[in-house]
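User: Please predict the structure of the protein below. I'd like the answer in structure-token form so I can feed it into my own downstream comparison script.

Assistant: Understood. Taking the following sequence of 485 residues as input:
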Amino acid sequence: MSTSSINIYWFKRDLRLSDLEGLKALESDTIPLLLVYIYEPSIWQNAHYSSRHSDFVKQSIADLNTQLEPFNQEILTVESEAPAFFEKLSQLVNIKSIHSSMETGLDLTYSRDLALKDYFNNEDIVWNEYQTNGVFRGINNRDTWSKDWYNYMNRSLCDVDLNKFAFAKAEQFSNHVNLLNLETSTEVFQIGGESQSKLWADSFFNHRLKFYSSFISKPLQSRMGCSRLSPYISWGNVSIRQLYQGAKKLKEHTTHKKSLNAFNSRLRWQSHFIQKFEQEPRMEFESINKGYLELHQTYNEEFVTAWKEGKTGYPLVDASMRAVKQTGYINFRMRCLVTSFLCHHLFQHFTTGSAFLAAQFLDWEPGIHYGQFQMQAGLTGTNTLRIYNPTKGAHDHDPDALFIKYYVTELSHLPPRYAIEPWLAEEELHEYDFNYGVDYPRRIVDITETRKQALEKIYGLRKNPLTQSEKKRILATHSMKRRMA
């Protein structure tokens, strides 16, 4: 091992060079700094992840490398399990310290971190983790969470001056590790990168904000009316604090305060759900309210396959599933709809679809994903049980069936009413050269009946003593005290 020492900044889901506390902490350290990203096969082969995610990460790293070019620096991007990489690097150089942002992830990454902590302790390597996005580690309740969140959001941004770093050269280690190929696929999704996040933020705040409140529930219009910043937040191209402070400055002179307030509230909810998962990570596997462990749902492969393929016979559900598979995005209401349809109308356990949807969402974020799955599946015992009606939802939010027709092309030539409800006039549809049940599948279930059954079973468990005691525990642990910004 070389006698020279280095510090390491380990990029995880914080792929940016601005407002990064861990990087800022190393700014004036005289020990050379090595920037590292580790592509871990055991994680990326997990069912929650897909090539659209890895492409986004690779694009983000390429963007960072472009920013680092003037400093003759790049990120050492390796394909390896993290413990093996650090063990190998320790044979080449003395690692003084490792710095990274706290990660609220799957059990897979949590177990990895526990193993690394043991290894670093045994090797006398300091590992400093830094708070990110207003999520607090080690708290037991939310008594001061809102106050602490606003205090965190109002702190000065951690502006990093790259001129102050003494960088270690990534190329001196390149021959000793397995470098990750940064080439991406030909799939077309939002492009990753800190530079891209700034373009989307500027576009939203300066042009699209005015549509936000009106379009947020619309499956088609939301595709441009919403901020579309979620993948950049999820993969760390921009921090919640940067967006919060940007919105706060805009609030002083914008005429679209309603939309801006709605956007700001969602920034806070983003942190809230990740905080919830930070405190109760078992939500990945089972209902947060243990009373619902008695909710017996029998796996039906036919139902789950139809749901995944967008062939349930309910056009808005099918359009939403096909849209997210093709583009990596559907708006919040449609996410609620497809989750409710799976868990209520098809009465499938949430884990039959959670990993699949995670792999489709470009903005996949474990804490939000599982917090919302639990809520929309009705497994908290604290929230109003919402069982979404896909037909009513289509009439309310896609009355001209533009979204449906775009993604369910079999229905594209039908009048809106029949595109929304093709079962209404089966004989009349022959006029449109459309064979219902052949050109488009018949309804896989009767949602009037399935709604009754789901309500009966879920509400039946709400009265159980365990469900009630769990409800009190959940409220005591996760309820926020209100505080104005």
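That's the full token string. The beta strands are 5-11, 33-39, 76-79, 94-101, 126-130.
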